[in-house]
Amino acid sequence: MPFSCSKIIHGDAFCLQKSTTEEVREARLDHQTTIRNWEKVQPYIPEATSQHTGLLRRIKALQISVDLITKELETYEE
Q1: pLDDT tens per residue, the chain (78 residues)?
Q2: Its pTM surpasses 0.85
Q3: How distant, in Å, are the alpha carbons of 3, 23, 24, 41, 60 from that of 17?
């Protein structure tokens, strides 16, 4: 079944391609896996370095992405 965005993020570049619900769920799982992997690496990167700051920002960005995907799936499945 095609997945389309709710009014929250409609019409933007994010929604140019229609995806199946299963593809969206797989993307969310991939994001969650990447977050876990990056969190495992985080202790080995010295704080106050650009690598550490960049990693924290990437983790936060993916967490936001997972939250948005989850919200969209909940809206779609209602």
Answers
A1: 455 555 444 444 455 457 788 888 999 999 999 999 999 999 999 999 999 999 999 999 999 999 999 998 888 776
A2: no
A3: 9, 12, 11, 33, 24
Per the structure block, which two tokens stand in for 16? Answer: 């140019």
**What is the Cα 74 distance to its own chain's centre?**
15
Taking only Cα atoms into account, the Rg of the chain, rounded to an integer number of angstroms, comes to 15
Query: What residues have CB less than 8 Å from 62, skipping those under 6 apart?
Result: 31, 34, 35, 38
- 76 with 9: CB under 8 angstroms? no
**What's the residue count for the chain?**
78
Given the structure tokens 């709710």, which residue do they identify? 6
DSSP-assigned states of every residue in 23-34 = HHHHHHHHHHHH
